[in-house]
Amino acid sequence: MARVISVESERFPIAGTFTISRGSKTEAEVIVCTISDGGHRGRGECVPYKRYGETMEGVREAIDAMREMIAGGISRTELLDAMPAGAARNAIDCALWDLEAKTSGKPVAASICKAPLRALETAYTLSLGEPEAMAAQARSNASRPLLKVKIGGDNDIARIRAVAEAAPDSRIILDANEGWTDENIVENLAFAAAQRIALIEQPLPAGRDGILGHIAHPVPICADESVHEAKNLEALVGLYDAVNIKLDKSGGLTEALVLRDRARELGFGIMVGCMVGTSLAMAPAVLLAQDADFVDLDGPLLLARDREPGLVYEGSLVSPPDRALWG
């Protein structure tokens, strides 16, 4: 029987407001792609991201345009050539992985994970705000072992100090979302090192980060917006120490696995991250992240409600997905 695809747009309220250097939002807008073969169905969730020129409408149209090829049985490998990296391809790719697992009875983990699955320690994200407000967020989450702190403004040294003092026992990742400049990066890096920050994510705008090859890295620096697919990696050698792999950037789990393995070959550390989405979007990333150095898969923790069944979070530990959810 030919495969049939359906596409649904969904919205999930965020608990409060999620703010980064590029703006704020109060809900997560996601798209779910479902592919069925008559007896089984697979699902994949993606989050269109404006930073990369994506919209809900555009991503839906891109998925719809693949109906004929999906009905004809396109493989995940063929999908890499048929579509560009991005949210639309991610939704289809993850739906195909899920469908294959349910059709064959073989879990995705059995195909991609070398060691027994384990619960992972995920970062918990603090939104960008004034130093006092960010300190309050940090105090409320000071029991979490790993915090990811959104920064990227003119007052970042005060923000870093406020959070570090409010959560002295937590390891901290700073995510500048391309908000630093050539003029302030050396000072900011030095201050971050003095505060024992563990990692700094994408301090400079993608494509305008050449200075990273000429300054000291007292704190490891991780590429986010600068890396989408494995083909981007060679240009980042000497600039970054680690890369953040997100399925919505790589265009699915298939390319993300290639990206991860090539990054390891080139000596990069690995972070597996996410957009703000539900457990369905996080599930394949939890499998990808089984051997990651940093895990940032807290999307459902930022929502007022998640889909059911969802991932199980105990504090900052996220368990592998049940197959009823995905894979």
From TrEMBL:
Cofactor field: Mg(2+)
UniProt-annotated catalytic positions: K150, K246
Positions with a binding annotation for Mg(2+): D175, E201, D224
SMART domains (alphabetical): MR_MLE
Originating species: Mesorhizobium amorphae CCNWGS0123
Residues of the Mandelate racemase/muconate lactonizing enzyme C-terminal domain: 131-222
Protein name stated in the entry: Dipeptide epimerase
Gene3D superfamilies reported in the protein's UniProt record: Enolase-like C-terminal domain, Enolase-like, N-terminal domain
Similarity field: Belongs to the mandelate racemase/muconate lactonizing enzyme family.
One Pfam family matching this protein: MR_MLE_N
NCBIfam families attached to this UniProt entry: racemase_DgcA
EC numbers for this chain: 5.1.1.-
InterPro entries: DgoD-like (IPR034593), Dipeptide_epimerase (IPR034603), Enolase-like_C_sf (IPR036849), Enolase-like_N (IPR029017), Enolase_C-like (IPR029065), Mandelate_racemase_C (IPR013342), Mandelate_racemase_N_dom (IPR013341)
Key words, A-Z: Isomerase, Magnesium, Membrane, Metal-binding, Transmembrane, Transmembrane helix
GO molecular function, one term: racemase and epimerase activity, acting on amino acids and derivatives
Co-factor note (free text): Binds 1 Mg(2+) ion per subunit.
Spans traversing the lipid bilayer: 266-289
